[in-house]
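User: Teach me something about this protein's shape.
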Amino acid sequence: MIPFDKAIFADSLKHAVILAGIGFLVIQLIWGEIIIDDLIGMFFAIPLIAYMIHIIRLFK
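Assistant: First, the predicted structure itself:
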């Protein structure tokens, strides 16, 4: 069974969205534009990063 706690994941998702925002800012500052590939990548990366944060928080 995959470890999952809904409350911890919801909080981790907020952190992942903040990290994605920082990532978009860095992309904008370095390359000067955000393309569709960046948006698609973040769309898939945010839940994965949130789950990784969630697992780290579960096992401390």
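Now, about its shape. The first helix runs from residue 6 to 31. Helices lie at 6-31, 36-59. If you'd like, I can walk through any region in more detail.
User: That's plenty for now, thanks!
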